[in-house]
Amino acid sequence: MRILVLGATGFIGGQIARVAVEAGYEVRAFCRPHSQRWALQGLQVEPVIGDLEAPASLVTAMKGCQAVIHAAGYYPSGPAPRARHVERARRQIRHVLDAARQAGIRRLIYTSSISTIGPIRAGHLGSEQDFYWPGQMAHPYWDCKWVQEQAVLSADGLETITLIPGAVFGPGDVKPTTGTALLAMARLGTRVTLTGRINVVDVRDVAQAHVAALTRGHPGERYLLGGHNVTVQEFVAEAARVLGRPGPVVALPMELIGWPLCWMARLAMRAGLPGSVSLAYLLEAIQAGQWVDSTKAQQELGFRLRPLAETLADAVAWFRAHGAFDRPLRSLAMMKAKDG
Predict the structure, then answer these.
(1) Each residue of 61-70: pLDDT tens digit?
(2) Which listed residue, of 34, 162, 310, 318, carries a Cα 20 to 30 Å from 205's Cα?
(3) What is the model's pLDDT at position 324?
(4) d(CA 184, CA 70)
């Protein structure tokens, strides 16, 4: 079977392409004109050039494929108003769905986000029956992911399957995205942390589930790819051990300082400071307390988790190998290109 991977040069998409090749699929990798493709080096993939804002390029890329894995969901990264970000997210997912129909694609696997289940109250595990509602959180990421997932869930003429990973960590975080937290801890220390709950999953486990969904997923379904339900203190303690730093001794209550921290992160985001977009979202995600139940994905997709210690150790090793701890927080893809 030939499949197209949208976002194949990115963090999650790159791992999906790798797992798909290892599973015997013919992989076509969708790349923007100026994307760095070093993450695909050594892989037997067919690169195709295009852009989510260019519908014709999507149709051309999809022709001859039987399935599409869409791991290139819109990520708001600039200071534009929320409405503008949401409109761009809506337009891009419409382009993908329309192109899939025109190209005769049978199955589309969509990489959503844990943000689409919304805040989870203490004492409850989030499930596929939980949904975010627009405007519930301040960062535009939440609304962008909601509008794209809703478009996929309501799409006609396609077998669509939605996969919802938690906070994804691991090797190959080229932006960086969630890995910004590890880079920040390496610079700022790990003695002080926050209270709160997060769900952390390995990018390689997420990729395996995507490839499994090609044959085992049920159309129209959502699958939570939750990882380890941990407190922020537990996450920072493990990260500190991997980084070779002393663990946390003070946990600041998120319910008291969360909103000021989020406000400062959003100001940094609007000023365009590196890593601020991911940090602003991560703080809101901690406030949302998203512990989840992944039983459905385990039973139907064979979803399995590797230890959190392994995920963080491999993520830190990858960042060290690419000089991330010695350079400013900027695109690691650019740094790799500079390194040759």
Answers:
(1) 999 999 999 9
(2) 34
(3) 87
(4) 29
